[in-house]
Write the structure tokens for this entry.
Amino acid sequence: MNNEELKTAITTLLPTGVFEEGGEWLNVLLEPSDWLPFALQVRHQEALCFDYMFCLTCIDWKTHLTMVYHLSSTKYRHNLVVKANLDKAKPDIETVSHIWRTAEFHEREVYEMFGVNFVHHPDLRLLILPDGWEGKNPLRKDFDDPVNMIKL
Amino acid sequence: MDITTNAAPENFPGQIQELPGGGIVLSKLDDVINWARSNSLWPLTFATSCCGIEYMSVAGAKYDFSRFGFEVARASPRQADVIIIAGTIVNKMAPVLKRLYDQMTDPKYVIAMGACAISGGPFFYNTYSVVKGADHIIPVDVYVAGCPPRPEALLHALISLQEKIKSGMTREQIKSANV
Amino acid sequence: MVEELGSNTEGDLIINVGPQHPATHGVLHLVITLNGETIKKVEPHLGYIHRSIEKMCESLTYRQFIYVTSRMDYLSSHINNHACALIVEKGMQIEVPPRAQVIRVLMDELTRIASHELWWGAMAMDLGAFTPFFHAFREREAINEIMEETCGARLTMNYMVPGGVLEDLHPDFQRKVKEFITLYKRKIAEYDDMVTGNIIFQNRMKGVGVISAADAISYGCSGPTLRGCGVSCDIRKIYPYELYDKIEFDEVLETAGDSFARYMVRIREMNQSIRIIEQLIDNIPEGDVQAKTKAVLKLPKGEFYQRVETARGEFGIFIVSEGGTNPYRIKFRSPGFSNLSALDHMARGSKIGDLVAMMGTLDLVIPDIDR
């Protein structure tokens, strides 16, 4: 399916989704509470069949956080980008590690680097950082390390 | 009795006199021990990142380090003499490196290979997790520059280490000489 | 750390493999729960080579961050640099001259062969045979010499820049590549005799580490790991970049999903790379090797994603740009990260002696995983 057909298919699934313009793939912005039902739909619906999640990351705009999920289909070869804005004070979002098993490791990494809490994740703890770095969230823009970080 | 002929090999520190019924070796004990130790150093297989591939190239057939005595690369620190730190050391790996160094038996020597092990290398600025130089953790005898160093540079470093041992100037030897 | 592993029944043994271990291809720490010799759970502990690259790149310019990607997956360093150059060209709409495109594809395929050679030598050494290691390094040294003459370095060459390549080819390049092709074709038959056709290796790899296609897709595996399960996923065929849609080569697929299938995929990929090199080596067009670009590169505001096929799988770069000279957020999607998450699934129920064969066929490079 090309971007136009995907747009119509997704609007029927999620009328509240906002589409962003620009970029080579379709970008959908949705509420964090809509993410899990939408994910189940796009994974299991025959016409969409987004079975391959190839990137899961987070961006720290200084006022809020944005989760970015990149999905693709091995059957139809179309791609979709899903985004969700999170509140910096309480960044909670549902986990999708039971739908795409690759999300287990990726979500652990976002948890330790940005502090996002993934609700119902089977094993949410530090993956790459050493013990004792819980809560430090190095990839946030307000990470303070006067010894190592040089502000030019 | 002919005392002017010397039957020693080229680089043996001392003289060997062949006599009927046996021979006499004339040397300082320290020199002979250093000569023997330097020609048979066994490295520990320790490679964290890219310099490990150049280390493996030196172990390969084109640049061969077993002709200098580094024949067997041992996996266990108890059986190794020299640790070649090939790769970046990060905060999580630092206690592991210290524990490996402590487990090695005396006499032991350390070579810091590559820019990352000397000073943090290309990861010096704006990294929160890199140890800026392996000599913050363990004492180093020879530093090899390069990112990654050429195999010939590593061979030069190994030969420099051998010469340092023969002349008695490594940290280990200075420490034990002053005791 | 040990108490967090969950329910252990009486009589379970928990052992550590690594971080310093000759068979883990880097610093990987596995905590394995065993019942006798049967594996119940494998848990990777990462971070022993975490060099905080993503944070560091936020203070580097678009010409400077290329050297860092060389050092992430250092065995396919040209291909990683290629991805960096492509994403900047995509963002700034720079046209690459045809000579530079052909040189880039040639360097990529030579790097792929060199990476698979080292994988083959190291894998055979893990399974206990020391001789293939020296044979593999003989071919790798031939490729390293070719690279050194043109690019200046043997392992981490920063040769690809936004706009083309840094320098023109050495005059001896064509002759040396042709000599390498003749050497390689003679020697690949030796590999089949020594390792592939050897009954001991076949018994150690067939039926070991089986993963189904649906599970592999769910775990996000890519590259030879996924092609060994029969799923077509070669980025060079599906989302072609550079010249790959104009070159003839086959995508290698096997259906068994076990270690031997992944092994055969890589051996046959080396032959396909030789086929690509043979098509291009006599047809390098004339021209300049670098397009004229501005001195200071600034990507426009927006988000960009570029994916390439490295020797390990799909490598992706995701850049969020605010219009300045540094990326605002850069994320490297590494192939090893997802391939490693499938190790636990593959290893449950097998014996501890098979774990090394499984890790060998996954072809992990740990700095790629930890970034």
Remarks:
- The interface with chain B takes residues 129-130, 138, 143, 145, 148-150 of chain A (CB under 8 Å).
- Chain A has a mean pLDDT of 86.
- Residues 3-88 of chain A form a domain with the Beta Polymerase; domain 2 fold (CATH 3.30.460.80).
